[in-house]
Design brief:
The protein is of the alpha+beta class and 235 residues long. It has six helices and eight strands. The longest helix is centred in the first third of the chain and has 27 residues, at 2-28.
């Protein structure tokens, strides 16, 4: 019975890196509603990837069970390598950060669309797609036909919440005059009844230049290199 308990503890410790990576990714990205089985399967998949990466740096498990026979009794003890445990935790955190980055910036979706495998985005909803790709000044039309403008600062994760926070906001009157809202901004909740959101190319009366994230610029440069035709100087 004691042997079974020790083995169960060892298995739990070996699975913890995958659960750490899965939990951290859930905090850094917007994920679909998952059942407990879905969460377990995801954590096990992360555990598999983590130990594949771990095997390149270490040839043994970070936690082992040692047994000592004393007469008719057998004593079990756990032995661990702190350096390997720290390495395992670092790999788990690194994997979670990478997967979160790839999800938030739709790297997997861009790749599979590029090779013509799928037309889908890697993000959860089109609401998330839009707000990750477009920021800046917005014009929001409410259900009562009122219009408010401002700089998009925060937005809800899911369209069911449909909440926004706009900085330097102003109401737009019927004759298209702006009435500034005193204070840091306005928080539009679900009860505001957001009907539409227009993203404006506007910056203090001048067009605003949009900037792509550095990772997207790197991927675009890499894509141009792949498409470059070889010349005689390449050989």
């Amino acid at each position: 019975m004691a042997e079974f308990k020790i083995e169960a503890v060892v298995v739990l410790l070996l699975l913890l890196p995958g659960f750490l990576a899965s939990r951290l990714k859930q905090r850094l990205t917007v994920v679909r509603d998952q059942s407990e089985l879905d969460k377990l399967v995801e954590a096990l998949l992360y555990t598999f990837v983590i130990y594949i990466s771990f095997s390149f740096f270490a040839k043994s498990f970070p936690v082992t069970v040692s047994t000592v026979k004393k007469g008719e009794n057998t004593e079990y003890s756990l032995r661990s390598d702190p350096t390997q445990l720290l390495l395992l935790a670092a790999i788990a955190i690194g994997l979670a950060v990478f997967m979160s980055f790839a999800t938030n910036y739709d790297l997997w979706g861009r790749f599979f669309r590029w090779i013509k495998v799928s037309n889908r985005s890697w993000r959860d909803t089109i609401w998330s797609d839009v707000f990750h790709n477009f920021r800046g000044a917005v014009q929001v039309e409410l259900s009562d036909s009122r219009i408010v403008m401002g700089w998009l600062k925060y937005f809800s994760d899911r369209p069911s919440d449909s909440s926004l926070f706009l900085e330097k906001a102003a109401w737009v009157t019927a004759d298209y005059q702006r009435v500034p809202i005193t204070g840091p901004g306005i928080f539009l909740t679900e009860s505001s009844g957001i009907r539409s959101i227009s993203f404006l190319n506007w910056h203090d009366g001048r067009p605003k230049k949009t900037r792509r994230h550095w990772s997207l610029r790197v991927l675009r440069s890499f894509y141009k290199v792949l498409r470059r035709k070889p010349t005689k100087t390449d050989f």
